[in-house]
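Extended Data, record Protein farnesyltransferase subunit beta
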Amino acid sequence: MARRNMKRLNFINGSLLGRKRVVTEQIHLEETEEQGQSEVDVININMLPETETVCDREEVIRDCQELFDKFAGEAHDLMADFHERYLLWAFSDMLPPQMKALEASQPWIIYWIANSLKVMCPGSLTTDTQRRICQKLLKIAEPDGLFAGGQGQLPNLLCTYASIAALALCDNVDDCWEQIDRKAIYNWLMKLKTPDGGFRTCLEVGECDTRGIYCALAVAQMLQIMTSELCQNVKFFLIRCQTYEGGFGACPQGDEAHGGYTFCAVASLAILNEIPVMNIEQLMEWCSARQYNEEKGLSGRSNKLVDGCYSYWIGATSAILEAHGYGDCINKPQLREYILKCCQSSGRPGLRDKPGKSPDFYHTNYIALGLSITEYSFEAKKGPDALVNSSRILRTPETDLQPINPVFGLPSKDLADIIIFNKDRL
């Protein structure tokens, strides 16, 4: 019996308690000059497990450093005209077959592309393109006025946010904003609401997390259908999502802090005008820790690789805190350098996650938004609409991006226009 127990214990220790990892010794050397002779002192020895993440990050650091060295001493420009071709192609031709995987995300694809154009190349979103966007999205909303991922699909909150955001970019062409059924959307939001302050992403089968809350509040604010009933208990749900790290997880008490969920929670509290209920100090420390000295970009979680999309998710979180008087918690010039030197390539249009990755519409949009954040300072306006003043802190003819509202992920003017329009309909 004792032998069997020992055999079982050895199996558990050797096979079940994590995979075995090679341990790497890193010896840091320091040279000192004493009386004309070079003396080498060993100042530190770190025993680091050679995990997959450690190896991947070392590769990313090397790739980024090569680009930093290549463009050292020169201002690397945003290749906006080059990226514009990539975005306009998507509105003028059939998308590749692999995009079928995003069949249920059609409003998101439209928002990513249209918003990228508005931020980087605002004049290129023509009236004809805006008209086609409106026709497509309003067709999806038939017959009940609710938005889904495509025609005949179940209405869901995330695609509703993407649809309203995309329509906000269309300058009310053909009075398209009049055709949004605000009453139907409000009644549906109230059905999605849960007693603890959350929102399901769709009826019956939808999950309930900070994404749902953000999408519900952002839609309600843009359409000016916000009520006290809609907001009841929401801040308490969000407070419970802040983790010991300082960031926010998807759900209360238990999830890991994540850049996307943190943005959703912080932006939601900004819409509710409840920013002070958070642990601000811990949040700022966590956001600051997401920026790595070597790569200069932002990661979404502890011990994860940098990813260009967090230029917005973390960058906008920082901008919201800045707008409310808490100061910067990221280094904007360094983030800008990562974006311009590591997230674009002259060999292929569009913006990418990191060196070695392919560009896509998602990353192009959120990296462009993040780059805009690096060019402006932010100050919250007084009032209930979560509007933000943007003041340019950097102007270069090579970028000159449109100012954005970090709470909504839209150009400031487009957001203000749709809010004012719907306010006049009250």
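Summary. The chain has a mean pLDDT of 89.
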